[in-house]
Amino acid sequence: MDFFDRSNLSNPKAEARIGVSSSNSQKLLGWNIPAEDLKQVPEHWLTYEEPEASLHYLLGLLYIAFTIFSLTGNGLVIWVFSSAKSLRTPSNVFIVNLAICDFIMMLKTPIFIINSFHRGFYTGVLGCKIFALMGAFSGIGASITNACIAYDRYNTIARPLSGRLSMQKAFIILMAVWLYATPWAIVPYLEIWGRFVPEGFLTSCTFDYLTDSFDTRMFVGTIFTFSYVIPMSLIIYFYSQIVSHVVAHEKALKAQAKKMNVESLRSNVDQQKTSVEIRIAKAAITVCFLFVASWTPYAVLALIGAFGDKTLLTPAVTMIPACTCKFVACVDPWVYAISHPKYRLELQNRMPWLAINEKAVDTASTATEMTVGNPGGIIQATAAEETAT
2.60.120.260, 1.20.1070.10, 1.10.357.10, 3.30.565.10: which CATH number matches 14-388? Predict the structure, then answer.
């Protein structure tokens, strides 16, 4: 068996799609696609009626809103985190990279918007491939970046003295992220293994998960493992370890306080610093949760298309996960705007008209408050240093 044999791909004829119905009845999807482009469309979609024009226009307007919110929010994150000296830390390198992934994700939306207002596959095969290529780079890049953020948070809390990343190591990890994402974008683009095809209303594109062949099923299973299972497993592992370390740390503090006959070993400044760290942790966890929540339906959809009952995948159903992925790219930067105190401070200084009311926290005293009898002193001091940067 030729592993990369593509001879079994369906190639419906354009004339079979034109005139399939009278002028008074609904046309089928793909009725207006040129014959040379029909081979790029999975035959599954060609059995459904074309959606009403209002649905196309509604999705086009929705994507315009997504684009404005995402490019504005992620643009601010990239600008502020890259230009503010106080935010140029190894940990924030991953935040900037996630914003870049989300930014790229939304740069492709003009293709979708054009297709929607032309009610179909208007930008053709090239537009489809560019759309899917940018989506693969940004989507897989974001999944690995979220895993890197979880790893960095884990190192900061679990190994506060030896686990902190240097800027050089952070950039090396960043290069590895993009190298990891590259094959899964380039290989289907060149149709070496898998391919990019339109889906749903034929206005968006992704990798082929519908062609009934061993080649397609192997590709879907492999990309599902490397772009979803591995990153999600790492995210779950690191955040579960963070929770266990925090719980153990709090127990140690309470036990030591009980031995010393005091209510708490934390000063007011320590409590304030802990609150700030919790805000940062919540922001990171929220972003990762949003990523998991938005991409899990898409992963399930692909598995159903490759291994399950394809009749479950109607054009309208497949457009829902596509919209949720774009929605998360809009929400991510605003999560940081709400929860990241140093980012809010920078926005407050640079754009006072936003009326952000964020108070600076003095970390100098907290960073030096390490008592011999305090088993959590090192962690608290390291947390103070992390927040100060």
Answer: 1.20.1070.10
